């Protein structure tokens, strides 16, 4: 008998996946955006459960489409639920401004739109319902008790620095948010801030956590373009993790030679990474927010390529 129910909501081109854990102390993994908690209330009612009774709001990482609804959801629980996030991503729960800073230092460096920062602020104002302190900031290694159901927290950085997996230890149900991207979701490209750590976390999930069931934050796709289901069994879970490693290796092989010779600007929307997009057969619009193409390219420039080497030996 499953304890876990997917709570799915549309958001622009994306579908957001949150999950209800029907434990004695009920939990919701990821809070969606501002309007998501009201939709969750109705979905829980149809299961014969009440959102007021939720005692744990478990955030997999600090992106807006995962924590934008946290404040509203916390309010619906009468502020009784614990709100959990990794300490490295906690600034994104505390302030919208932290997201602007992250945008400016990351993908925003490469996006050509002069209005980009203003658009980002408007998006943040709409999608994040309120700023708040987490009630519990984790580092990984913690275990919580959902009323007799043990749940452990594992740091899996790479997509963001503070990405975590929540694991129901007795059944090895594993919630990873966006840390397993396979071939990407609606934008057709996987997004991660730090390629080496993304890779190491995928290997940790495959070799140490070994999910019986895996839950992803969006309908991420296989190499053939079909989406993984809302609940991945052990075989799908393995395929999603292996597919993520495979795509990362392809991207790495395409990017590093270009970083070695130096980047050249072009007229293409993927500039200055046009040859990389061409080599990978990536034909999507890389400038559409959340722009995972540029997030990932920035990750190789910052953490892996020759400039990163200079940075670390300075
Ligand atoms: Zn994310």
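-> sequence recovered:
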């Amino acid at each position: 008998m499953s304890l876990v129910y997917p709570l799915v909501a549309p958001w622009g081109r994306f579908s957001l996946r949150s999950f209800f854990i029907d434990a004695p102390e009920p939990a919701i993994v990821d809070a969606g955006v501002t309007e998501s908690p009201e939709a969750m209330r109705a979905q829980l009612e149809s299961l014969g459960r009440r959102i007021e009774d939720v005692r744990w709001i478990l955030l997999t990482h600090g992106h807006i489409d995962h924590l934008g609804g946290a404040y509203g959801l916390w309010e619906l629980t009468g502020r009784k639920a614990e709100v959990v996030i990794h300490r490295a991503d906690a600034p994104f729960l505390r302030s919208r401004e932290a997201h602007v800073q992250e945008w400016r230092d990351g993908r925003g460096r490469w996006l050509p739109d002069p209005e980009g920062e203003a658009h980002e602020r408007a998006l943040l104002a709409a999608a994040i319902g309120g700023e708040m302190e987490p009630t519990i900031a984790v580092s990984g290694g913690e275990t919580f008790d959902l009323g007799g159901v043990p749940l452990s927290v594992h740091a899996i950085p790479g997509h963001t620095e503070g990405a975590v997996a929540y694991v129901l230890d007795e059944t090895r149900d594993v919630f990873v948010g966006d840390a397993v991207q396979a071939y990407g979701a609606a934008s057709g490209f996987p997004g991660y801030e730090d390629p080496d750590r993304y890779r190491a976390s995928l290997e940790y999930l495959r070799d140490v956590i070994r999910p019986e069931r895996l839950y992803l934050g969006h309908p991420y796709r296989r190499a053939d373009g079909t989406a993984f289901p809302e609940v991945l069994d052990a075989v799908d879970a393995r395929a999603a993790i292996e597919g993520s490693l495979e795509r990362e290796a392809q991207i790495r092989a395409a990017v590093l030679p270009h970083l070695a010779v130096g980047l050249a600007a072009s007229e293409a929307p993927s500039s200055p990474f046009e040859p990389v997009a061409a080599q990978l057969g990536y034909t999507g619009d890389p400038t559409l927010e959340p722009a995972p193409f540029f997030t990932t390219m920035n990750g190789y420039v910052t953490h892996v390529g020759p400039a990163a080497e200079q940075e670390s030996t300075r």
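Residues 4-252 form a domain with the Metallo-beta-lactamase; Chain A fold (CATH 3.60.15.10).
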